[in-house]
DNA sequence: ATTTGATATTGCAATATTACGATGATATAT
DNA sequence: ATATATCATCGTAATATTGCAATATCAAAT
């Protein structure tokens, strides 16, 4: 085994799990927080800020990119990206919905 | 490697990542949603509801328990647990804080 | 055209996760 | 006491994740 049985779960559950998975690493939390606090698009400096090797940062960025949290240009040297705020708000809403939907009558 | 370099990150980042990790599996999302919607504490039926084997469900429940999301008795047959609502609210607040803290002046 | 500066990709080793069968433990019913 | 029902633990196989060195790529400057 080792692979999740995604097919037995609903799309909603799989989607939220996928988002959570991206957030399930302190480096990616740190990267997201750093980018989200910038005034402008980011150029490099993440390797210095986070403290992991360049290939590792690159991989983490890719995971973040996969769920649509980054926007900008990713071409060669003119790369310049920042948080996709629309997507950011969507994720926030997903978590909000999940946590809001609780039966307060229990216990 | 294979292990996260948790020591180079802040407690806050590690904590949020740990919580996200628990939510990073559709089975655990489904389990949490199911329990959180119940009127009463849960007794069994999770194996039927989710569709994974009993040992697997047991493992997932343990992960959820580790971050304090369940309360109740876990002794033999008198087991009876439900969502720890205080903790639930804490986690909700953690995600809310993370997503709220974004610089809207960028792009 | 070559160098430079920066990110991406590949390949690999170490570790973690997911899943389940077999087994163990524990409480209740018979 | 024995059987039954239910959850926990162990052991193991399959797969995924993390991290980095080496290397490739790519755009701009020289």
The number of helical runs of chain A is 5
For this structure, the quaternary state is homodimer
Indicate the low-confidence ranges of chain A by residue numbers: none
**Helix/strand/pairing class of chain A, anyone?**
mainly alpha
Give a verbal description of the structure.
Two copies of one chain form a homodimer. Chain A is mainly alpha-helical and 107 residues long. Chain A has a domain at 18-89: Arc Repressor Mutant, subunit A. Helix content of chain A is 54%, strand content 7%. Chain A has helices spanning 11-23, 26-36, 46-50, 54-66, 85-100, and strands at residues 70-73, 80-83. The first copy, chain A, has a two-stranded antiparallel sheet with strand order 1-2. In chain A, strand 1 (70-73) and strand 2 form a beta hairpin. In chain A, helix 2 packs across helix 4 (54-66). The longest helix of chain A has 16 residues, at 85-100. Chain A is globular and about 50 Å long. The model of chain A has no long low-confidence stretch (mean pLDDT 90). The structure holds a DNA duplex (30 and 30 nucleotides).
């Amino acid at each position: 085994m080792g692979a999740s049985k995604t097919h037995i779960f609903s799309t909603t559950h799989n989607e939220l799990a996928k988002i959570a998975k991206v957030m399930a690493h302190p480096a990616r939390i740190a990267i997201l927080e750093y980018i989200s606090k910038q005034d402008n698009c980011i150029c490099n400096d993440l390797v210095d800020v986070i403290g992991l090797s360049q290939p590792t940062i690159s991989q983490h960025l890719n995971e973040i990119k996969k769920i649509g949290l980054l926007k900008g240009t990713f071409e060669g040297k003119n790369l310049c990206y920042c948080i996709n705020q629309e997507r950011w708000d969507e994720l926030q809403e997903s978590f909000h919905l999940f946590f809001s939907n609780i039966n307060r009558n229990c216990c």
